[in-house]
Amino acid sequence: MIRLLEKDVKIPYDLLLLADETVDAIDKYIHQSDIYVFELENKMIAVFALQTISSDTVEIKNIAVDTAFQGQGIGQELLKDAISLAKEKGFKKIIIGTGDAGVKQLYLYQKVGFEIYEIKHRYFIDNYPEPIFENGIQLKHMIVLKKDLN
Prior knowledge:
The chain has helices at 13-16, 23-27, 74-88, 103-111, 123-127, and strands spanning 2-4, 34-40, 43-54, 57-65, 93-99, 115-120, 133-134, 137-138, 142-148. It is an alpha+beta fold. It has one domain (2-148): Aminopeptidase, CATH 3.40.630.30. Strands 1-2-3-4-5-9-6 form a seven-stranded mixed sheet, with helices on one face.
């Protein structure tokens, strides 16, 4: 079951850190975001954070599934839920960013209708203190994808 996490509940950094490298990086956006959690038998096993960017745009700032539950379609369902929530709130587009070596993420996001529309060059080099590697490749650029909600 997916639910909005109340503001006074402890932030599930353990899950958020599966999709972002440091607590400092997460803290730059998490307090301005709505956090949604997916629970199974009263245990948080997945999370996503939505942040309003403008009157017509919302961004998925973080989306993660506990490693024990990955590969079961939960991430895809979370994306669909985020899209539905954005539509319900009247947003016209939703965006999400991932690293240039995030092959699985790029596949998943495009599978649910996102399209590549921007590359933020040197994002991971300029915004993180240590190099980040994914699939054996150092992340350099952020690929931003968007989905129109009309």
